[in-house]
Amino acid sequence: MKKYQIIYADPPWRYEHPPIGSKNRAIENHYPTMTIKNICALPIQNLYEKNCALFLWATAPKLKECLEVMGAWGFEYRTCMVWDKEIIGMGYWFRSQHELLLVGKVGKLSPPEPSNRISSVFKERRTKHSRKPEGVREYITKNYVNIPKIELFAREKTEGWDVWGNEVESDIDLKKLANLTRGSNEN
Questions:
Q1: Domain limits at 106?
Q2: What is the CATH number of the domain that holds 18?
Q3: Total count of domains within the chain
Q4: Which residues lie closer than 8 Å to 140 by C-beta, 6 or more apart?
Q5: How far, rounded to the nearest angstrom, does the alpha carbon of residue 160 sit from its chain's CA centroid?
Q6: pLDDT tens digits, residue range 148-163?
Q7: Contact in structure between 3 and 148 (CB atoms under 8 Å)
Q8: DSSP single-letter state for residue 13
Q9: Dist. CA 119–CA 24, nearest whole Å
Q10: Strands 149-152 and 4-9
Q11: With contact defined as beta carbons under 8 Å apart, do 63 and 19 qualify?
């Protein structure tokens, strides 16, 4: 099975609180969500090489859960970037205008060359619900040209990347991967 050195993921976080305003604001109206337990249980460890970086999206209310997922998948937290969406959104304590992109790693995959590093605050105007900024994927692609990359929970195919998700024709079968994991644990 193919292994990756870059994993880019935007899990469908489930929120336990009621939607703000009308029920048509509920996340489940846009896509099915997953519990933290189910996200953590995905057999991601079987997808990556011994040297790998994880770029994992989190909303501010899900920061704790995002770190939990990162650990469950076998990654060590390294740093984060803030995406300034340039448009204010909904929120309970604060009206959110940003998301976090956490970076974790396994092994010794190097960060981008110093001359290629960008600000930890990335500004790109928000578009469609939950759609991530193209500039971030382009940045990753530019800095990790000749290594295998996969986007988890992808909504569209990107050249040079494998994808997995319920809105795309996936390049991998996580159910098969999960069965392999269970089989190896039984031996």
A1: 4-186
A2: 3.40.50.150
A3: 1
A4: 6, 8, 55, 149
A5: 17
A6: 999 998 888 999 999 9
A7: yes
A8: B
A9: 35
A10: parallel
A11: no
